[in-house]
Design a protein that fits this description.
The protein is mostly helical. The protein has a 3-stranded antiparallel beta sheet with strand order 1-5-4. It has a two-stranded antiparallel ribbon with strand order 2-3. The longest helix has 15 residues. The two termini are about 10 Å apart.
Length: about 170
């Protein structure tokens, strides 16, 4: 497995924005399950993959602005048992929970992540900034077009990106 760096504040901000967008509606419970979180984060972090999947599923929809102006990915994800994964998720989710920005809830064996009122305030302040607005906009597109189960997202990624399926476990994506 490739070495990992401690989770950065940028990574925390990215996940907070993603979780907040999925927590916004009254009917929403947040993001249900770490598999779903990982697949949504994969599509958020890898704009070329997002654009390709949008072209397959929603060719008539504008994918919007690339949220990562530099085109570089802060920390690559790895191929794991159920597709793209970042070993720092546990630390990231723990940091956001410890800061009181998200609240994990457990139903049966599934963890659901939603923003707290304080987390919502921070996410909205981030979204107002020029550098984070495109990230929030992309997260809104993810909620609109890919608010599926973790397993369905995994299957879509496997069908659309066979190179990920064929990669050895632990391979950087």
């Amino acid at each position: 497995m490739p070495p990992t760096r401690p989770p950065s504040t940028d990574a925390q901000a990215r996940l907070l924005l993603l979780i907040d967008v999925f927590s916004e509606t009254k009917a929403s419970k947040g993001i249900e399950g770490r598999m779903k979180l990982a697949k949504l984060d994969f599509l958020l972090r890898y704009p070329a993959h997002f654009n390709r999947l949008m072209a397959v599923r929603r060719p008539d929809v504008d994918a919007g602005e690339d949220p990562w102006l530099t085109g570089s990915i802060e920390q690559s994800m790895i191929r794991y048992k159920y597709g793209p994964w970042d070993p720092s998720y546990y630390a990231l989710l723990g940091a956001l929970t410890g800061k009181g920005l998200i609240e994990p809830k457990h139903e049966d064996a599934i963890a659901t992540y939603c923003t707290t009122p304080a987390g919502r305030e921070v996410a909205h302040a981030l979204a107002e900034s020029e550098s984070w607005r495109p990230v929030r906009d992309r997260a809104v597109l993810l909620r609109r077009y890919f608010n599926l189960t973790g397993t369905t997202l995994k299957n879509l990624i496997y069908e659309t990106f066979p190179d990920i399926v064929e990669a050895d476990w632990g391979t950087q994506l």
